Every structure is written in structure tokens, then in C-alpha cells.
């Protein structure tokens, strides 16, 4: 008869695995300002979809207009072209609807991504970092999540061990900064 002491143990937990998948996906992004990733997981721990921020299919990554940073001119702003990781993860899902699923995101979802998360039926959001300089946008997303019954939690708050592991992985992959004062856009 086996005891818990003799039972094999995984090297990482579920939260580390799913945020790790999101971090690895983010390494595929060509957006030099913010490499973000997301993974969507069913209640029974199956990965349903993965995405990262990037251009829509068919758009040439070599075209400099797509990567311009002039937010005063929508034509010359990368924000007009880049599809967010959360949206790509939803669009890349192997099953729909995504009722009761959890999405792991490397960055707190913007209001547009919050809308897609809600509409897809995802019930839980776990994020790795939050852009403090986007406080108003974050509040808008939180308002929609609360009204829709979507639970949104910082990995750091509910699982500090998984947060530390994920932060270390992000550092090892040389991804976006994890400090509280990050200024990426």
C-alpha cells in the first residue's frame, strides 16, 4: 500500500504549467514593446487554446507601419494592428463555447479582451502582471468582469509560489519586465 510520502510528485503545479504555457507562447510574439501570451484551460485541466500578441494572418511582419508607435495617428500605431494574446487564444481554441474555462494571461486583460473573455464564456482570469499606468482601463475591465460573474485574480495574490516560478521563467526567457514599476505600453 502506498503512502503520500512514496507517491510520485510533479515538478510543477497546474498554475505554473498553464502560466508557463502562456509565457512560452509570448516568446513567439514579434512585438518588441510587449510580448504577451495566454492559455485557456478547461475545468478538468485540459489546454483548450493558446495565443500570443501579433499581426493578423497575411499581414507582413516586415512592414514597419505595423510596428509604428505613433498613437496620435491610428494608421501609424501598432495598437491598430496587433491582435492581443487573449483574443488569439480564444480564436485558436479547439472547442467552443468555453464555458467555465480559465484563461491564464501574462498581462492583465484590456477592456476589449475582457469583452471577448466574457462573450466566450470564460469564468476565471489569472494574470501575471498588471500595467499600473493603465488603471482606468483596468477598472473598466474589472467592472465588466464583476457584472458578468467572471473571477479575475493576480497569480501573485492567490498562489505566490506559482507567481515566483512564473516570474523566474519570464526572466529566463528574457520577456517583459516583472517589476511593479514597469513602463511598457
UniProtKB/TrEMBL annotation:
> Entry's Gene3D superfamilies?
Cytidine Deaminase, domain 2
Domain CMP/dCMP-type deaminase residues, every copy? 13-145
Needed cofactors, names only, are: Zn(2+)
UniProt keyword terms in alphabetical order: Hydrolase, Metal-binding, Zinc
Gene Ontology molecular function, alphabetical:
dCMP deaminase activity; zinc ion binding
Which Pfam families does the record associate with it? Answer: dCMP_cyt_deam_1
Highest taxon of the lineage: Bacteria
Query: What does the entry list under GO cellular component?
Result: cytoplasm
Family, per entry: Belongs to the cytidine and deoxycytidylate deaminase family.
This one is known as dCMP deaminase family protein
- In the record, what lineage is assigned to the organism producing the protein? Bacteria, Pseudomonadati, Pseudomonadota, Betaproteobacteria, Burkholderiales
